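User: You have something folded?
Assistant:
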Amino acid sequence: MLLGIVSDTHDDLDAVEASVTFFERQGVDAVVHCGDFVAPFSATPFDADFDFYAVRGNNDGEWNLQSVVDGFGTYLGEAGALSLGGREIAVYHGTSDVLVEGLVDGGTYDYVLHGHTHAHGSETRDGTVRVNPGGLPIPVEGADDVFRVATIDLDAEPGPDAVDHHVLDRS
């Protein structure tokens, strides 16, 4: 099973469309959005040929986002847990480093997915893989200077070799 991960699209429809197109071309089975759509209209393009899951980000101020996402996917609220492809996955926007670290260090999940920092990365600690797909480039130290998403091969052994980050062109 191939899982797509995206975060921090911030109403940038070019980034959203690039993500959906990329995930469809890759043949992902499901996509997780780690929050910060901002407005509900930027969630609707994810009504595509894959299962869709999303959490709320700190910039998702319109509460209608839940009903929009639930119209075609699954809205997990502030955080959620998924069982996909035989793997246990936690999803959280990432606003609190303490909560991200607790999810990773708790040992309950194969993967902990989060965004918020706009900086892609992955690491493995005690059998749990933390994955941040990145996000839109923002003028903050440490943030990516290009838009990125990630994919995880859930059929592979959990670890860094199962995770790929991808640079997408938003034009």
Summary: The chain has one domain: 2-167. The mean pLDDT is 97.
